[in-house]
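Thread title: Can someone regenerate the structure for this chain?

I was given the following input by a collaborator and told the matching structure tokens would be attached. They weren't. Posting the sequence so someone can regenerate them.
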Amino acid sequence: MADTLLPKHPISSLESELYFLIARHLSSGPCRKSFEVLIQELELYQLLPKRLDWKGNEHNRSYADLVSSNIHLATDHLLRICQRIGTIMDKEVPTSVRGVQSLIGAGKQSLLRDQKDC
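Best answer:
Regenerated them for you:
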């Protein structure tokens, strides 16, 4: 049954790590039910980062296993990444309004902006 629920296309390791970081972020916030449902689905659909053994074989991991093996990642790790991206981006392609950072900005305020947007 679980095989029919697996994603049709494998997800990248970056997507898998992003799912983990989203769950980690939700774990310390007010959306407790969302966190619990997300963990259930991540484990059910096997979307969490996998472990490689010494032979190169992949093994599924639980959320709890990932947390215990990544103790260097605080619950605000994703938030801190987002904060740093804005600072790095401002150095490469400055925004039109200095000091204003938004994850959902558009055009010259977008984190996806490039030189042609400015």
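Residues 77-92 form the longest helix (16 residues).
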